Amino acid sequence: VQLVEFGGDLVQPGGSLRLSCVASGFTFRNYDMSWYRQAPGKERELVAIIRLNGATNYADSVKGRFTISRDNAKNTLYLQMNSLKPEDTAVYYCYRPIDYWGQGTQVTVSS
To answer: Looking at residues 65-90, what average pLDDT do you find?
Structure first.
């Protein structure tokens, strides 16, 4: 199993980013997939989850601003992040149950 994230960057408050996670080594369409994030000095937290049937759930802190999606043909998970805030600054991780993590991609929101 391999999960590789892309798309992290430095962005100004109010800006947008799209993160991608390319998966390999397993049948992507058969698994729920999630994005987590970890800010400095804080515990890792769930940001969003997309079920294998396409149903989604979000942390309250990102509802209405972030959208999780998947392309099963491309084995890729996405996180569209709009209206970014400084408190969204964190390393963002792709996750597949049970206990498979990507290496993370840094998102920094700052002026």
So the answer is: 98
